[in-house]
Amino acid sequence: MAAQSRTLILLKPDAVQRGLIGTIISLIEQRGLKIVGLKLIQIDDALARRHYAAHVDKPFFPGLHKFITSSPVVALAVQGVNAVEVMRQIAGATDPSKAAPGTIRANFGLSIGMNIIHGSDSAESAAQELALYFRPNEIIDWQRDADAWIIET
């Protein structure tokens, strides 16, 4: 079976408030990726600062911080072949007006500030971000029978 990887996906406060959780998870699963961790959480100040550490000193951080802590988010650990790259394709460009048709951001977003979804941008970021949101025992390594019809061996 082809090598699989994992990535962190956050369904941001706007996705939760708009009732898009099920729709977005469905799109992820329809693509062939597998959910191996899932939780609804309220991001607090400390987690927001750890997650966005590279942006804390940037002028846009206060608005980002206010938004990401404003309402619950859904944290997903997603697994599949090239999971980071595939999820970035599914999500679309950060600016919804520049996202490819059919992507999550093109379909549901209107602004960069409220763009529905976060996805890790590299394997290294995925490992770090997954560790922020999930303890090791919260990511379940399980066998999906449909993988034989999704993943080339």
Describe the structure.
By secondary structure, the chain is an alpha+beta fold. It has one domain: Alpha-Beta Plaits (2-Layer Sandwich). The chain has seven helices and four strands. It has helices spanning 13-17, 21-31, 45-51, 61-68, 83-91, 104-108, 123-133, and strands spanning 5-11, 34-41, 73-80, 117-119. The mean pLDDT is 96.
Q: What are the low-pLDDT stretches, counting only 5+ consecutive residues below 50? A: none
User: What portion of the residues fall into strands of 2 or more residues?
Assistant: 15-25%
CATH homologous superfamily designation: Nucleoside diphosphate kinase-like domain
Structural class: alpha+beta
Overall average pLDDT: 96
Number of domains: 1
Count of strand segments:
4
Number of helices: 7
- For the record, give the distance between the C-alpha atoms at the N and C termini, rounded to a whole number: 4 Å
* Order of strands, widest sheet: 2-3-1-4
Alpha carbon gyration radius: 15 Å
CATH C-level label = Alpha Beta
Helices and strands, in order, run as EHHEHHEHHEH
Give the second-level CATH assignment, the architecture: 2-Layer Sandwich
- Residues in helix, %: 25-40%
Major β-sheet profile? 4 strands, antiparallel
Mass-distribution shape: globular
- The CATH topology, please? Alpha-Beta Plaits
